[in-house]
Structures are given as C-alpha cells and as structure tokens.
Batch of 2 targets.
Target 1
Amino acid sequence: MENAPGNPDDTPLSSAKRLLLAYLAEHDAPCPVCHYNLRNLTQDVCPECGQQFRLTFGAVNMRLGALLLLLAPMIMVSGLALLFLCIVCIEPGRAPSGVYVILVTGFLDVLAAFAAYWKRASFSVHPRNTRALLIGLSWIANLAIVGLSIAYFWR
C-alpha cells in the first residue's frame, strides 16, 4: 500500500529508499562491502553482510589535474628535503646551512600539501583563473626556494 499524505513514513528519506529499491528491482548491483548481488532487494540492508544503503549521487570523473599541479611542487620539495635530511643524518657536521632551509621548507610543504588535499573540494570550486594563480604561486615559490638553496649550497 502506498503511503498516504501526512503519513510519517512519507518523508524524503523514505522516498529515496523507495527509489533505491525500485532501481535494485530492475538492475544488478553489488553490495559495496561484500559484493553480494542486490537485485530484487526488499529492504535497504544487504541480506549478506547487514550493510545499510542510501541513495546518493556523485561525479563520474573527479578532475584532479589542477590539484595535482598544485601539489607537485610541494611534493617535489618535500622529497628533496627528505634526501637532504638523509645527508644531514649521515654526515651532520658537513651539511651546509642552506640545507636547513630546504629541510624547513620541505616540512612546511608537507603540511601545505596535506592542507591542500584536505581542502581539495574548496580548491576545485574556485574560478579557473584563481586556481591557475595558486598553482603558479606554488611553483614559483617552491622553485625559488630550491634554486636559492642550491645556489647557496654550491657557492
């Protein structure tokens, strides 16, 4: 029997549940947890593993190119800092002071990369010009630090 108007079961959630069950009545779909075929499911719970489901939607392809371009110089400097940290640990007395600039920058870049990844959703909603500016500033700042540190290192 269909829910009458005003019935407490006639909520958006129960409507989403009905849509989910209607979809599963006609389609093969695996449980995301145990991969049990959910075709002809009568409840929003997997009979195999007990996982409850909900109807959601999402992007087919996440565009991560701009985020990767933003993260690349940070990861590069962090990797260089890790290499120099190994050098400092092996020969602590022979490391020039310019190495410490890269070590500090590498540590800060690790924090910045985690923050950028954590806030990736807010980064992706910025206009293209703003994202390009942030990407350019990330590359310029990191390459300048690496260049200055290497120039100081080799003088």
Target 2
Amino acid sequence: MFSQRTQVLLSPDQVTKLKRIAARDGRSVGAVIRDAVDSYVDPGDDARHRAIQAMLAMNAPVDDWEVMKAVDEGRIEAVTSAEVVQEILHRFLAIRRPDIADALARNTLDTFFPVLPITHALMRRVPDLARRYPDRAARDLIHVATCIHEGITEILSADRGFDVVREVRRIPPEEFAAAR
C-alpha cells in the first residue's frame, strides 16, 4: 500500500519518455517511476537470503558456496557486474535452458547489490587491457576494467587466468574459504 506522496520535477523529455514506457507496458506513469526507484534500492537481506537459498536448491553452478554463505550472512560485502549477469544468460540460453537463465539471473540480481554497470568510460579501458593481456578473453578484460574503474582491487574467481593481471589480485575460492 502506498502512503507517501512526493513531488519530483521532470523535464518535458523525461515525462514524454515515462508516458511512452507506461503506454507500451499498459501501466501508470507512477508504476514506472516506482519500478525505477526499486531498481536503485538494495533488495535487502530477506531477498538476498531467499535468492541464495533458491540457487542452493537448484544446485546452481556456483564456484564456492562458502562465499555465498558469507554474503548471505553479511560477513562480506560483494558486488557483481552487468557482464556477470550477461554471462549467466548467455551460457544457459546457449544450451536452451531459459528457465535456468531466468532463475539464476534474477537470483544474482537479488544477491548482489549494486550490479555495476558497463559504461562507455569503463569500456575505454578495455583496448589497453587487450593490448597488455592479449591471451585473456574479452569478457575477462571487461571484468578487470570494471574492477579498475570501480576501485576494486580483488576479484574472487576460480579462473587462474586472472593471475597474470597486475591490476587486480585474484582470490581463489578455496583460499577465501580457508581464511574464514
């Protein structure tokens, strides 16, 4: 139930865009605005816990469940990027499993907040990384560029290929689990 009213000043262009989205989706402008606000608000501990439990129940391909448990319990702060969500969708749509793609993508979005965007400024870092690390896959270089761009110095990954990257220290899941 909605009980708080607020006033926001928007440009004519913003109003036009909101009305177009609302008409396309058969919803009110207010519903579109509430969805936009929700996309910027942490889903919270309950949603995170439910998402992790759902991934556990479906035996999701997670590198290390100890990490997920630490995230669930709030012992570590973790984020992910739009590239990770894209990789999940790509992998499971490629093997014709849209049900798993949908569930894992949604649960990932509820587990990790925020999801770091892949921006133009971030992508400007990738060509230089590709020159310096020509043996790394493009998607890995996007992960590295995201870390650099966001000031992240460590990446939790089973992928040993990150070990050659000087800008980011890879933490193997087994090392993380042993330290906890």
